[in-house]
Every structure is written in C-alpha cells, then in structure tokens.
Fold this protein.
Amino acid sequence: MNDARHVGGPGLLDVRIAHKTYRSASGQTLEVLRDVTLAVSIGQVGVLVGPSGCGKTTMLRIIAGLDTDFAGTLRAPQRGKLAMVFQEPRLLPWRTVEDNVRLVAPDFPEQKLAALFETLELAPHRFHYPGELSLGLARRVALARALAVEPELLLLDEPLVSLDAAMAARLRDELAMLIDSRRITTLLVTHDLDDAVRMADRLFLLSARPARMLAELHIGTPRSRRDAAELAAVKAEVARRMAMAPR
Ligand SMILES: Nc1ncnc2c1ncn2[C@@H]1O[C@H](COP(=O)(O)OP(=O)(O)OP(=O)(O)O)[C@@H](O)[C@H]1O
Ligand SMILES: [Mg+2]
C-alpha cells in the first residue's frame, strides 16, 4: 500500500499517519502506528516521547521519505533540505571524520566547518577514522554531518545518548542555539524527559505500540527563558499524562 503524498512546503512539517503496518517474511503483520497526527511550524522543535518499540524511528523514517509504505499524508520540505541523525551513527568507516561530513556537504565553507567541529568538540578528531572513535564521538560526527547540510528540517533520533551527562547537556544547549539562530524545523526523539522539556515547543506523547497520540503539550516560553520551576511543572505534567495512559 502506498498512498503517501509528498507536498513541498517552506520548513513546515505536517504528518498524518492513518496506519503503518510491517509485514514479516513469514506473512505476519505488525501494526506500529495508528492515527498519529503531528504538525511542527517553521523553526519550532517537536519532541516525540514514547516507550521503546512504539514506532518513533518508524515515524522519522516515514518523514524522511525512507519508508513510503504507509497510509496517510505527509507534508515536509523539499528533498535535499532535510537531514537525519539516525539512532546509530552510520559513518563510512573508510573515510575520516572530516570526509564523512564533506561527503554530504562538499560546499560547506572551511570556516563554518571548523566552527562546527569546535562546537561539537570534534576538532582534535578531524582526521581520525570512525574505527578510532568512541560511540559518543561517532554520534557527534553524525550530528556534525546533519548540521553541515544546513537543513530546513532536522530529524534527530536520540542524538545525545552515549554521551556523559555534562557533555549531553552542553550539546543540547548548543543544538538549541543553532536551531533557534538558523530557524531549523526539528523533530527530536528522546527518552530523556529533561531533554524533552528543555528542547520542545511541542511535546508529543505516544502510547505503546501501535503508537497513538496520547497528548500534545505546547510549551510557549522560549527555550532560553525556561526556568527550573517551569521545567519541573512540564515534566510533572508529562509524567501525569503518561501515568493516565491505558496499558
Ligand atoms: N523493518 C521492520 N520490519 C519489521 N518490523 C519492524 C521493522 N522496523 C521496526 N519494526 C518493529 O516495529 C516496532 C517499532 O519499531 P521502531 O524502531 O519504530 O521503535 P522505536 O519507538 O524507535 O523504539 P526505540 O525507542 O527502542 O528506538 C518494533 O516492534 C520493531 O520491532
Ligand atoms: Mg528508535
């Protein structure tokens, strides 16, 4: 089945998935998504939170155009202006860190590349090969590769795991600044509620598989102005909504 419609829009994301089912080689079907609708405006960050295996990566793959076998409609920016950081770093092992990035962004100016490597604390690893990197470093290279594309739409699948807490917090704040300064429409998947409430303009809470939308929270305060009390209140609300979810 393939009734997906791709309509180019200026940095706006609008996803309506009626259902998505996988079929195994033995013919069994697995329903993964059911009636999931979400929209993210230009320059805003949508965050997807939901139990492991509920269908978050499946949803990002559909939005990225990597999986067109679903029932529903999709409005996303034109191809080429979209970047995705996969759950696994997926670097080419025979290319250096710099060449992994340059491959997708050959025209990215050297000055900007140096600044990006500096921000992501990758400068000392520029000429290393992926096999010489820790998983946390490899994840940062994947992030650099996505940002070097200067995307209109950025899809991030748990980009901050495998990093120590201090580094994850630093990178999250850098990412928030880049997203705000470049007005990148972003969809982030995370299991970390702290990251979710700090990053999200819209927070989408998904149920267990088949994923349905349990709740959508709108956080109106700009990321840079959220104080501890507001973050705690939103987190408590998320926990309350998750607890109310049918098992
Ligand atoms: N290509 C596939 N073929 C068959 N089943 C699949 C395929 N990809 C994913 N699944 C199944 O679909 C369900 C959703 O998978 P998905 O990777 O989207 O979950 P997720 O929410 O990203 O989980 P996690 O938080 O663990 O990353 C899982 O049960 C998974 O086993
Ligand atoms: Mg996943």
Summary: The beta strands are 6-8, 13-23, 29-40, 45-49, 71-76, 82-85, 153-157, 185-189, 202-206, 213-218. The domain at 41-62+78-244 is CATH 3.40.50.300 (Rossmann fold). The chain has seven helices and ten strands. Residues 56-57, 87, 157 surround magnesium ion (ligand 2) (CB under 6 Å).
